[in-house]
Description:
Elements lengths: L3 H20 L14 E8 L3 E7 L2 E8 L2 H22 L9 H15 L1 H17 L6
Antiparallel strand pairs: 1-2, 2-3
Amino acid sequence: MVSEAKLTGAACIQKRAHELASQLGKLDFQLPSKPSGDGSHHLEVRDAYYLVVTDRDHEVERRRTTDPEELLYWLMEALTSSLSWTFERGRRRESEDPRRQAFEKQLKLLGTLSPDWARRRSQEQTDILSRHPFSDY
């Protein structure tokens, strides 16, 4: 059974995530509490916060945290990633690795929400690029 404090916590997370998404122009942002099976996230609250992704009724990913700020980072990292790839697709440059624009755009979007989140994502991108460098063609 979920305690009243956890239910309140889940409602606060939902509200804060919606506020952050609204700052990015995503007024329709929703974080469901049940799986939709379409590859999107849903939130489960038990002994901790669980951010779960299901696709075609199969669990693809499950992240656990007790830190609401960590959960918000995960949500906004995913949202800004989606927004940055949409941005890049509309402005694709011939002969350029598409990650150049998408990564830069994501950092700008995250930076509007939290400079710390942008720095964190920048380091994650650097780690990705150390293993899989840009490949301009």
